[in-house]
Amino acid sequence: MKLQTRILSLAVLSTLPLMAAAQDEATALDQVLVTATRTPIALQNSISPAQVIDRAEIERSQAPSLQDLLRGRAGINLNNSGGLGKQSSLFLRGTNSAHTLVLVDGVRINTGDLGLAMLQDLPLAQIERVEIVRGPQSSLYGADAIGGVIQIFTRRNAGQFAPHLQLGAGSNGLREASGGFGGSGERGWFGTDIAYQHTDGINACRGNPITFAGCGADEPDRDGYRNLSMSLRGGYALGDAWHVEGTALRAEGENHYDGYYNYSETLQQVLGGKVRYTPGARFNLTVSAGRADNESQNYNGSTWLGAAQTHRDTASVQADIGVAEGQLLSAGVDWSQDNLDGSSAGYGVDSRDNTGVFVQYQGRFGAHHLQANVRNDDNEQFGNHTTGSLGWGMELDGGFRLNASYGTAFKAPTFSDLYDPWSGVPTLDPETSRSANLGIAQQGDGWRWGLDVYETRIDDLITYDATTFMMSQVEKARIRGAELTGAITVAGVDISAQLSHTDPRNRTDGSAQFDNWLARRAQNTARLDIDRRFGDFRAGITANGAGKRYDDAANTVRLGGYGTVDLRLEYAISRDWSVLGRVSNLFDRDYETVAWYNQPGREYRLSVRYQPN
Q: Is 220 exposed, middle or buried (0-12, 13-18, 19+ CB in 10 A)?
């Protein structure tokens, strides 16, 4: 496995000189990025390292899940506990899994009890694009954004009314169906979608009931998963200055596990609405509100064991003012309230609210770009926290660009951290961080590459202590890393390469775990995507690799590195109909990203798609 990941890393590195030297007639259109500044900018002008995955790339990848789409991308470590639909944790730039803020259409979906985003329950069939911004963003978004922000936009509809449909089946009893319709007119747009995914699954866990390792059970059966999702969205221009829009996403799931909890029924629902007032080119006012619901009913067989229900209400007002040519001032107020009123855990506190006020300045002076943010959050439990960031970019000859940034961030302990009956510690303090990033990038006609290096220092990092079975705080953690990315289109072949190195360490003086790796983070990850169209055919390959990691803070449980290869084919039967086939884990590699939890072997998937062009 170690050799495989090294080979993949070398393969990624070998493509990067081509990206810096090759010239091709293809010219990539500038992608728009919203998340890095809370205003639309060109992706190439972002001072924060960022990536956009659009609907075309989602469909081209034939990824079966959001986790599969994100795996191996720059800065991302992704762990999964047993296959499709099972709990997945995302570590962005080596920070904790609850240190990445996840938004759906601008609405925060990290749960109030655990602080995680249930990525496994967000179906790709409902997603239009994904924006990934790496590095601290608390100065714009408040708590939770120590590692960065991932924003998911549900599907949009443009042009005349049109339906779409996709049906598929595959290994391990996979059945899939999705479809919808929508369109836009002179003043408005609308759309609706429904998607269904069902798998018989694999044996998720090979736990030991004597030592309580893994899931603490030996149940060699299939652990299935079902997800039924629906979305509805629309917008309308009331006049030249006023625009309203609303979105709704609902995903219901059934999930089978091994262990004490072996079955759950889940619900994830996101509602959002916006009113935008734009009387002129230099002023924009946006008022938005949303609600995110995460619910689960947990069972052992037919015996009900408890429920977890979290609800987060949010509201925001943001004004964007063009103070001069190339200079934009943004200011706003965010309010949120978390409630756990439907949970059965018996937490000592089950609600709290937070109010954040922020100001941002963006300026362009010739070849120089400047971004400065400051924000104060008033948390009902933990009082005031002020965060800030400063970023600078400079364009050079030859398509080069330099970026430098520094930012602070914080995260309030979750309700589970504080009040879980078995592991909670009510005296935990908020986590705080300081991060610096230096980057260089170059973009030409049909190619681009970028290199970012960073360091993050976290104080009072919250972790789980496996020796005491309680939450604890690491006094200090230090994370250093580098990300090398690139893409090129040459001779009709699209190549994208991403290579990440992360060194996440416990740096608490006097600790028995001093200089240990933070748990479940691989130091090295790599991803290589190659696609080529041959007339009505399209073929592609994705190679993913990750180095070793430790499953525990003591670094006694080592998980070996791995490498996988996925193949995909697409054939256009006609202008509107296509047949798609995918082979995942082509070489049937056996690996784990969480100790004792299995990953699928070789899997096949075949589907047919109707999409008017």
A: exposed
Nearest to 515 by CA among 469, 555, 465, 457: 555
* CA distances in angstroms from 517 to 257, 456, 521, 552, 556, listed in the order given: 29, 14, 8, 9, 11
Q: Report the alpha-carbon distance of residue 493 to residue 22 in Å, rounded.
A: 12
Res. 23: pLDDT tops 50: no
Q: What secondary structure letter does DSSP report for 129?
A: E
* E strand or H helix at 210: none
pTM (predicted TM-score): 0.94
Strands ordered across the beta sheet of 50-53: 50-53, 127-134, 148-154, 100-104, 107-108
C-alpha–C-alpha distance, residues 495 and 12, integer Å: 10
With vertex at residue 120, the alpha carbon angle to CA 119 and CA 121, rounded to the nearest 5 degrees, is 90
Of 72, 123, 173, residue with least CA distance to 502: 72
Cα separation of the two ends of the chain: 43
pLDDT tens sequence across 256-296: 999 888 999 999 999 999 999 999 999 999 999 999 999 99
What is residue 16's three-state secondary structure? helix
Pairing label, strands 50-53, 100-104: unpaired
DSSP state of 205: B
Beta bridge mates, 213: 208
Give backbone dihedrals phi and psi of 55, rounded to 5 degrees, phi first: -60, -35
Residue 89 parent element (H or E): strand 88-92
User: CA of 317: how far to CAs of 43, 223, 329, 331, 371, in Å?
Assistant: 24, 44, 14, 8, 20
Is-contact 149 110, C-beta < 8 A? Answer: no
Average pLDDT, the chain: 93
Ramachandran category for residue 523: left, alpha or beta (phi over 0 → left; psi -120 to 50 → alpha): alpha
Q: Max alpha carbon distance in the chain (Å)?
A: 69
- Residue 158 pLDDT level (bands cut at 50, 70, 90): confident
CA distance 520 to 343: 28
pLDDT category at 95 given cuts 50, 70, 90 is: very high
Q: Per the structure block, which two tokens stand in for 513? A: 């775990």
| b/e code 270-281 from CB counts within 10 Å (16+ = b) | bbbbbebeeeee
Spatial CA neighbour of 166 closest among 154, 180, 156, 155: 180
**Residue 283 bridge partners (DSSP):** 280, 321
In terms of pLDDT, which residue wins out, 11 or 214?
A: 214
